[in-house]
Design a protein that fits this description.
It is built from 11 helices and 14 strands. It has a 5-stranded antiparallel β-sheet. The radius of gyration is 18 Å and the shape is globular. The longest helix has 16 residues.
Length: about 260
């Protein structure tokens, strides 16, 4: 690994200022950044660690929302009594991300900023109609996710928090790739302030997406039975050694039914 300077700012403002250095990279949990550096895929001159910024951690339930700091780890979300009570499906999702090391180091902000097409959190954000607040602005889920490994974040823009509307019902089902534990297909369903939403991760070639045909079925009948006979087009879905596009398409309504039921 190449030489680089390491910075540990105490505030978001200091982190943004430090990250303005040439070739600097922001680091949340480091689960992607450090591996990329080890492989020589990127070689930043400086790393700005967000892990010590208190204003980016913690969980708060108020005004019909669960708000989670961008620096909050997956393990913290999974273990939170507040999250388990308000949005059990979100706590369940967090409890099955990666392995124990990943859950104790990885953060919700880091996962969303990286926007891996098979990551779990994007499905929860899109599936619950969450909003992402950065050091500069607030974005809806639809505004935030823009494509494969890409988001609306500008250079050195920091995810400070994510606010999830509390649904009346929600569920999560994940068919995982056994080695990486990423979602081969993952489906998050919810019914609440944002209506009925079905978000799919792991299957789309362009990343997370909403399955609007399934949403219509569940709007008419919120039950697993609504998925009987439902189909999803394989067009535009991933096809690789782990599963064909047709296989992923067939999984989506099955998982959606399980998430509801």
């Amino acid at each position: 690994m190449q030489a680089f300077s390491f910075h540990t700012p105490a505030t978001v403002a200091d982190a943004v200022k430090t990250a303005a250095l040439a070739d600097a990279k922001l680091m949340a949990g480091g689960q992607t950044l450090l591996q990329s550096m080890k492989l020589g895929l990127i070689a930043p001159s400086a790393v700005v660690d967000l892990g010590g910024i208190a204003e980016m951690t913690g969980i708060r339930v108020a005004d019909g929302h669960v708000t989670i700091g961008g620096g909050t780890t997956h393990a913290t979300v999974a273990a939170s009594g507040d999250v388990q009570k308000a949005i059990p499906a979100l706590a369940d999702l967090a409890s099955h991300i990666g392995d124990r090391q990943v859950r104790n180091r990885g953060t919700i902000g880091g996962s969303l900023a990286n926007n891996d097409p098979a990551a779990c959190y994007p499905a929860a954000v899109l599936g619950l109609g969450a909003t992402i607040t950065t050091d500069r602005r607030t974005l809806t889920a639809e505004q935030f996710f823009t494509g494969l490994y890409t988001t609306a974040l500008a250079d050195n823009e920091v995810i400070v928090s994510v606010a999830f509307p509390i649904p009346t019902q929600a569920g999560w089902q994940k068919f995982k790739q056994p080695a990486s534990r990423f979602s081969l297909v993952g489906v998050f369903v919810s019914k609440g302030p944002a209506g009925v939403r079905v978000a799919v991760t792991g299957a789309g070639a362009g990343g997370v997406f909403r399955a609007t045909d399934l949403e219509a079925r569940l709007t008419a009948n919120w039950s697993a039975a609504a998925m009987t006979g439902a189909t999803v087009s394989a067009a535009g879905l991933n096809s690789d050694l782990h599963g064909s596009a047709a296989y992923r398409a067939a999984l989506i309504p099955v998982l959606a039914g399980r998430a509801v039921g």
